[in-house]
Amino acid sequence: MFMPVGTLGSVKGVSQDVLEELGVEILLSNTYHLFLRPGVETVRRMGGLHRFMSWDRAILTDSGGFQVFSLNELRKVTEDGVAFRSHLDGSPHFLSPEKAMEVQIGLGADIIMAFDECTEYPADAQRGRDSMELTLRWAARCKNYFEEHKGEVPWGHTEVVELRSAGRPRAAVPTRSEATQALFGIVQGGMDAVLRRESALRTVDIGFPGYAIGGLSVGEPRELTRDIVFSTLEHLPSDRARYLMGVGTPEEIAQYARAGVDMMDCVLPTRAARHGLLFTSEGKVSIKQARYAQDESALDPACECRVCLRYSRAYLRHLYASNELLAQVLNTVHNLHFYLASMRAVRAWIRAGDAAG
Ligand SMILES: [Zn+2]
């Protein structure tokens, strides 16, 4: 599955009914951003992220680790957690494994992620090991906290019960939810295949229903990303969900899915769309180019999305050149459709392989 990124509880420019029409089954939202704005208590009081954003399909939240490391130059990492300042107003905050679990339980996504340290690139051997060990200790702390608090999800209903002995006729008593979230572990280990293997095996020892490959797309060459994905994947159990975080182009996600990756997310289709870069069956199209100014053809003649069925390249180019809001909306809808269609093709390919034995 491919998960569109809805950083602030919104896939930028695309409303939830259109996401449903596109066939989005699960989207990703960012703990770091929601933690700062509107804040976890607001979302919790609104009944959790699903109800807050009116989305009854699945949601995954990341742990906030990646954003803390990528958006904050002044962060301070200790054994306990990470102190950082908000990129919005400079206010001080602290995220620890326990706090990241508390926040994600409060947001109430279906799948939540362990709080990890994203090792920077490049990193020397000692730094790579120390960072991996820290992530493993944090993974165990995440699991411990989660096991103790997993019933505290915002959809746990409040029951009105009789309290005869207290002399009060009725009182609201919060009940613990039977349905809980799934907490996934994250493999780190930098760009070292030996550390990756160790991180994978030891994360599996801690035991999670799914495992993510994190710490990639941090500035390393694409071939190295590929090598690390493949060398990590083989050490993760194939009967558990295997999630590759933050990767990649349409070709890459198809390649990784065929290799056994079950879940991926990437800002590329949505972010590129807002910059006029569109993925099509004929390759990339930069819609801002003057050559499309009088092009009557569909953006992608092979695409069946609502944009390609209705509008010409000339119109899309005009919207973009005129800085119309609709340009970002239509471009995003097409790119998401293209990614999701790529994944549907991979699923058909997998089913055909299964059928062929
Ligand atoms: Zn299209």
Nutshell version of this structure?
The protein is of the alpha/beta class and 357 residues long.
Which keywords apply here?
single chain, 357 residues, alpha/beta, eight-stranded parallel beta sheet, globular, binds zinc ion
Into which percentage range does the β-strand content fall?
15-25%
Biggest sheet record: 8 strands, parallel
- Order of strands, main sheet, comes to 1-13-12-11-10-7-3-2
Rg value: 22 Å
> Can you count the beta strands?
15
Number of helices: 14
Low-confidence segments: none
N-to-C SSE string, H for helix and E for strand: EHEHHHEHEEEHEHEEEHEHEHEHEEHHH
Q: Which ions and ligands are bound to the chains?
A: zinc ion
**What separation lies between the terminal Cα atoms?**
22 Å
Apparent shape: globular
- Helix percentage: 40-55%
Class by alpha and beta content? alpha/beta
The pLDDT mean sits at: 93
